[in-house]
Amino acid sequence: MAGNGRGENGQESTLHGDVVGAAMVVGGGIAGMQASLDLAEAGYKVYLVETKSAIGGHMAQLDKTFPTNDCAMCTISPKLVETGRHLNIEILTDSQVTDLKGMAGDFTVTVHTQPRYIDVDKCTGCGECADVCPVVIPGRFDEGLVQQRAAHKLYPQAIPNAYAIEKRGIAPCRDACPAHQRAQGYIALIREGRFEDALRVIKEDNPFPGICGRICNHRCEDACNRDKVDDPINIHALKRFVTDTVYAEPRVPPEPVPGQYDERVAIIGAGPCGLTAAQDLCKLGYRVTVFEALPVAGGMLRVGVPEYRLPSWIVDREVQDIIDLGVELRLNTTVENLDDIFEEGFKSVLVAVGAHEGIRLPIPGNDLEGVLINTQFLRDVRLSEISNLKSQISNDSSSNEDLEFDFYDLIFGKRVLVLGGGNVAIDVARTVVRLGASEVHMACLEGRHNMPSHEWEIQEALDEGIAIHNDRTFLRVVDDGDGRVAGVECQDVAHFEFDDQGRLAVETVEGSEHVLPADAVIFSVGQRAGLAFIPDDAGVGMTRRRTIAINPNTFAATRPGVFAAGDSVSGTSFVIEAVDSGHKCAESIHRYLRGEELEPKPRPELPVVQLTQAELDERMQRGEIQITPRVPMPELPIEERVRGFAEVATGYTPELAQAEAAR
Predict the structure, then answer these.
(1) Which burial class, exposed, middle or buried, applies to 605 when counting CB atoms under 10 A from its CB (0-12, 13-18, 19+)?
(2) What pLDDT digit, counting tens, does each position of 316-331 carry?
(3) pLDDT average, residue stretch 426-451
(4) What is the bridge-based pairing of β-strands 287-291 and 348-351?
(5) Do residues 526 and 455 lie in contact, with contact meaning Cβ atoms separated by under 8 Å?
(6) How far apart are CA 155 and CA 80, in angstroms?
(7) Within a 10 A sphere around the Cβ of 604, how many other Cβ atoms?
(8) Whose CB has fewer CB within 10 Å in the chain, the N or C terminal residue?
């Protein structure tokens, strides 16, 4: 039997005729309805195929008929009702014939049904979906003369009396996002001022909207169709705005999720990957315990990203929303080995350890006094209770002298050199600026336009007075004669590349040796996950890069019941990638604990809608699109931001956010 497609990928149905008699009528206009009724009355089973979401054809769009000048709707309404109610007629809307085989009396027809996104069997035609739908488009039925909502009924008397949503595919922003965040949905809600609804849509895919609104690499913006007109939508800034706006209201803790299963799941690491998986598993009904070695949850988000980019209260708030679901969090708890976890009664373990271990280059002098490591440096700054950085570092630089954390004397009033050119290296350098260094320099292997850090972060570093020395390789840390740092001896780089094994080959410029003077040196050339608690005999396979070997489809490690995701598998990654791996790993753990096949079932894929220039030009001619550059994000003046750890980007106002969303 045929039926309407309900899923996102549509469906194909193959219909067979036989000698008893089944007929197909293609086209649901007045002629098609009359033919269907005649055949149905003669005792035939009739399939009425219509490409639109309702039958009626062009006549339903007319005011009068020619030559009698009768009311078109008065003429076809009885036919609509009779066709819709006839027991011998099955209406296939949003459908078209794709193949026809056979001969008279014995045809086989293949019909492709497009997804409708609204279940015809459940829809009552009340119209509430259209009332709340935030997406406004030109009216399809009225030839674009009026506007309609994306959720619509083709016309008031439509049969079936049900609403529909027509989509060409998925937005490129959603496709580009690792977690497939529905940006176009929450942006439309922001435009209409429905901020709480917008946050609800975001949190369906991403438990960390306030965090991602600040530090995401926003691939969605790189793929945005709007970039073909003027500037991409400032998606991450809109996400931040709606989060901050709702979070400014009194917090209502989420209701705890009742347990459904007896199995307990242990998660090692309270970073974005582990906490995302904990949330999903808790919602599925499992008892989840998260083990975290640090005194705070949030992983590198909490201790590796400076306060001026990601305030602590945002991380703490979004972590608490997960804990309140019923997740047990054990802080200051170091896992010594996996056997202890299983002996405690856990049936599955997810290793989601973040990249907390910085890398010290193997060059002479790397252990001199005055040499620091990026991750430890950032962690100490964020966790320093004595310094209380947010309150003590102020516009009055004299207050800096009261700071008493261990490395302060190495920074304040000194020349500091940061080795590395990635985003973390820039975080380190900008933090050093705020701690009162007299000069801050960065040196890296890459050229200016090949640095691994984001362009906007490089520009912010330059704006804050940080000098960047590109195309350098490092020979040794120079000793001042008393065991302290005096600088780094470098050599200019002519060319470098990595081989297929990840080994670096550098071609230097002969005779280019020189010293970059410094009183302190901070290595920021990479990070890796701390996996020392997994020895060689733990039954968990490791890669050559000392990450956990997994099945990439299931996240299962070689030891039964052990899964791994996030930095422990991929190395350093962005927060949205960690969120995505946390979601997928939770699904795998659920299948494992329920005794199901671990390999996930293939998911339907919709085409990505890339608007052509011709389409954009046509929309601009109709006035649907107007040249409107991106609304800039307000920021603190440079002279203010470098004096303390206040957040640099101050966020949109409601007026600015709605103006940007309206683009």
Answers:
(1) exposed
(2) 999 999 999 999 999 9
(3) 94
(4) unpaired
(5) no
(6) 12
(7) 10
(8) N
Length of the chain (residues): 663
Express each pLDDT in 220-239 by its tens digit. Answer: 999 999 999 999 999 999 99
Q: Is 291 left (phi over 0), alpha (psi -120 to 50) or beta?
A: beta
- DSSP state letter for 635: B
| Closest C-alpha among 462, 581, 472 to residue 516 | 472
The secondary structure of 21-73 as a DSSP string is: -EEEEE--SHHHHHHHHHHHHTT-EEEEE-SSSSB-TGGGG-SB-TTT--BHH
Compute the distance between CA of residue 162 and CA of residue 123 in angstroms, rounded to an integer.
Answer: 6
Q: For residues 359 and 372, what is the distance between their CA atoms, to the nearest angstrom?
A: 10
Structure confidence at residue 387 (pLDDT): 41
pLDDT digits (tens, 9 = 90+) for 519-543: 999 999 988 888 888 877 778 888 8
What long-range pairs does 136-143 form, CB within 8 A, spacing at least 24?
A: 138/622, 138/624, 140/166, 141/60, 141/61, 142/61, 143/61
Quote the pLDDT of residue 619: 86
Stretch (H or E) spanning 290: strand 287-291
Give the C-alpha separation, 434 to 417, whole Å. 14
Element housing 76 (H / E): helix 72-85
**79-111 burial, b if ≥16 CB within 10 A, otherwise e?**
bbebbbebebbbbbbbbebeeeeeeeeebebeb
Mean pLDDT, range 171-183, rounded to an integer: 92
Q: Report pLDDT for 105.
A: 81
Q: What's the pLDDT at 383?
A: 85
Cis peptide before 232 (omega within 30 of 0): no
Which H helix or E strand runs over 287? strand 287-291
pLDDT tens profile 563-591: 999 888 888 888 999 999 999 999 999 99
Amino acid letter, 612: T
